[in-house]
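INTERNAL AUDIT FORM
Audit reference: QA-55
Scope: verify that the stored structure record matches its stored sequence.
Auditor: D.O.
Record contents follow.
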Amino acid sequence: MLKVIGAGYPRTGTLSMKAALERLGFGPCHHMFEVMSRPEQSALWSLTPGEGEASWDRLYEGYASAVDWPTGYYWEEVYRANPDARILLTVRDPRRWYTSARETIFQAATTVDAAGQEAPEELGPEAAQAVERLQKLRRTLLNTMWRGAFGIDADAVPDEATAIAAFERHVEHVRATVPAENLLVFEVSQGWEPLCDFLGVPVPEGEPFPRLNEAQEVKKRFGSVIKGEAPYSS
């Protein structure tokens, strides 16, 4: 069962939050990179999430927490399946969020397309398998989420007004839905204290809060996934 459910959009500090939750004892923490890089996760999430073989228990088997999409997109269904979990809503300035998302996740489909145009022998077996997984995910899971949030397929980039409106609607919906005592609205710039207080754990002394969500770091890790390599060192 999940103990912490991240309801925030991608590019709101979710990679840093994954590292922080794992440091605090709420790991392993599920993240979109898990879905993209692990064949068993890619296969399950390419089905209809929450149904049949892809039941919520199966999708999150072995994980104690989850952040980023797809969790942040399906957070209500995941919450119903894990009613004792705490909800963590990561946020940031909407315009800065859009700029960051446009430079990273909204360009990811183009990267997958470019890689997919190369012959398998040019890519190498591991990279070819990774690209095939990502293309299937885009046709299934990513298209579902992009259409639901932005009204377009995952191979297109939403305009700023559309994306920011979706972002703000989502934040307000989570705030209005989750009881205040079970919700933390959090910006990673706030550091350890509010997060640890919310989760009831001590602050790691002498340790800076993880800072892993910069655009270049995310691009680097996505590049590793495209090559068929692990996106994390752990």
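Auditor finding: record pair retrieved intact. The CA atoms of residues 88 and 195 lie 9 Å apart.
Action required: none
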